[in-house]
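Subject: sequence -> C-alpha cells, single chain

Hey, anyone have a minute? Need the predicted structure for the following. Not urgent.
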Amino acid sequence: MKSFMKSPVSISVALAGGWLILLAYIFDLDALRTQVLGWVVLVAAAGLLLGVLNLAAVHFGKLRSGTRNALYSFLLIISMFITFVVVATLGPGHEASQWIFTNIQLPVEASLMAVMAVTLVFAAARLLSRRTDLFAILFVVFAVITLAGSGPLLGFNIPLVGDVLRPWVTQVLAGAGARGILIGVSLGTIATGLRVLLAADKPYGA
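Reply:
Had a minute. Here:
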C-alpha cells in the first residue's frame, strides 16, 4: 500500500497491462491482445530510439572532451548518422541499405566470431594448464571438434569431424543444453510475471 501511494500511476498501468494480456490469452480475446501488444511494440521502439540517442550523446561527450579514444567515438557517430539517414530515406530493402549490411555489418560480425574462436582456443589451453580433470578434457575435445568441423582445416576437409561429430555435438548436445536453458528461462519468466502481477515485485519504479 505504501509503494502504491508513492507511484500509483506506474503500478496501476503495469498491473492493468499485465492482467489484460493474461486475460486476453485465457479468454482468447485476439483483438484486445493485438491492440495491447501493438502499444508495447511502440513503447519498446521508443525505448530503443532513446537508447540510441543516449549512446550518441555519450560518445559525442567523449568527442568533445578529446579523450584518447575520441576517434572511435567520431567513427561511431558518423556511422550511426549515415546508416540512419540511408535506411530511413531509402528503406531497408534498397541496394544502399543492403550494401551497408553486406559490406560493413557482416564483416564486423564475422570478425567478432573469429575473435570468439580464438578466445575459445585460448580458454581451452588455459583450462588444461590449470586442471586436467574429465570435464576440462571434454571441453577441449568438444571445442576442437566444433572448430575443426566448421570449415576446411588448412585447405582440407575432415569428413568424420565435419559430417558426423560436429553435427552431433552442435545439434544433439548443444540442442539439449539450449532446451534446458530455455526451460529455465521460461519458468523464471513465469515466476517473475506472477510476482509482478501480484505486486510482490515492482520493477517499474515503485
